[in-house]
Hints:
Layout: H1 3-31, E1 51-61, E2 67-72, E3 75-80, E4 89-100, E5 106-114, E6 118-126, E7 136-141, E8 147-152, E9 186-189
Parallel strand pairs: 1-7
Antiparallel strand pairs: 1-4, 2-3, 2-5, 5-6, 6-9, 7-8
Amino acid sequence: xxxxxxxxxxxxxxxxxxxxxxxxxxxxxxxxxxxxxxxxxxxxxxxxxxxxxxxxxxxxxxxxxxxxxxxxxxxxxxxxxxxxxxxxxxxxxxxxxxxxxxxxxxxxxxxxxxxxxxxxxxxxxxxxxxxxxxxxxxxxxxxxxxxxxxxxxxxxxxxxxxxxxxxxxxxxxxxxxxxxxxxxxxxxxxxx
Length: 192
């Protein structure tokens, strides 16, 4: 080894040790860093693999009457009061399931009670689910009788801010609390 190389040996060693120390600090510091935000999927190929998620079912009842019970694909959602401007009227019921993320719609069967033993059923299409970590399956019952589903990571405010006369009825005038059956709904006495 030449004399000039021996003179620079401590400097090289110091540079290597410093680089190793800085690299270690950066790696360890990155362990606690938040993950980068997920990029929006532009096509089905960009989505992470689809998997089944357990979700809590929550109902929003914008109709004129309370439901004794409702369910989604056989998973009970419990009873469902008439909504208020700040609450959907339902309770949180565990557990349903959804597949996410998806780039395609999925049909679900929603059943509920109208009056005492009149059960109604409607097939509702859940739009493609882009939520990566779904927590809730929301069931929105609209005044015209149609139903919409949504998958969310947190509770949503009611989509319609409607006043109510009481827990079981929308209007104090009972004649206004008519039940509207959507054309795609099938109803019958007793459970399906």
